[in-house]
Amino acid sequence: MDKETFDAYVKAGNIAAQARDYGKSLIKVGASLLEVTEAVEKKILELGGDFAFPPQISLNDIAAHYCAGPEDDTKFKQGDIAKLDVGVHINGFVGDTAVTVVLSDDEELKKLEEASREALNAALKIIKPGVTLSEIGAAIHAEITKRGFAPIRNLSGHGLAQFVIHDSPSVPNFDTGSNEELVEDQVIAIEPFASTGAGIIYESSNPTIFSISGKKPVRSTMTREVLKDLEQFNGLPFALRWIVKTHGEGKTKFALRELRTKGILKEYAPLPDKAHGLVSQAEHTVIVRDEPVITTKID
Ligand code: MN
Ligand code: MN
After folding, report:
1. 248: Cβ contacts below 8 Å, ≥ 6 apart
2. β-strand pairing of 193-195 with 279-281
3. How far is the CA of 195 from the centre of ligand 2 (A)?
4. pLDDT digit string (tens) for 170-182?
5. 53 C-alpha vs ligand 1 centroid, how far in Å?
6. Confidence (pTM)
7. What share of the chain is helix, strand, coil (3-state, %, to 5)?
């Protein structure tokens, strides 16, 4: 990895971490989910980062991919467990990080938060070139199950590459038996999820996050204008809200519909636990070395 790439990863990770911690401090009973999301966005831009994907705040049984829509009026309530997931890029090099906030004194919920956090720590402790995906999965699984929860098996960490947020390898949250080894300078996100429910998520409906994959000619002027604007994301996910702000709701929905029928619109619907158990998540981005560099950690 050249110095320029390394520095970009470190800078992206640091900005993501600052935005994550800032957002975490704003998540309080009565605060608006949309306002916190927009405050995190503003912070990322102020710090000189670009969005690797829209900041997401997923509540309770939703593990991931909930992003406040244009008129979202959700407020945090007592008893909520919130996952804030932030992605920043510098020149396409990504820092991806998440934290869980428990708005309750309930011991079980605190333990659920601890489970994903300690699972992440256990995985980070063994990261180095040569460690297998199976060993990482086993370390995560052990921390979560010993507290009586289920790791989410069909969500996983992932490799990162320039303008690619879900590259190989897939970093499992349980022992898959994979003998694939991590290699020097590989960049990966590790993200254990702990659930009080099934430990399996499904794709629900009403996505507010999308990305464009591939190119197809489009007929209508409206869709062409929106698509031209979407090129700025270089294939990375964007929020419905951002596009509505520029183009208005009618035009945006029309364009997204056409892009969907063309097969070049990727949709990221909220991901609830199958049994609607409560879910916690923790995530860091790390450059694999004998002394791993956790880019999204602030000391
Ligand atoms: Mn993430
Ligand atoms: Mn991730």
Report:
1. none
2. antiparallel
3. 17
4. 999 999 999 999 9
5. 9
6. 0.97
7. 35, 25, 35
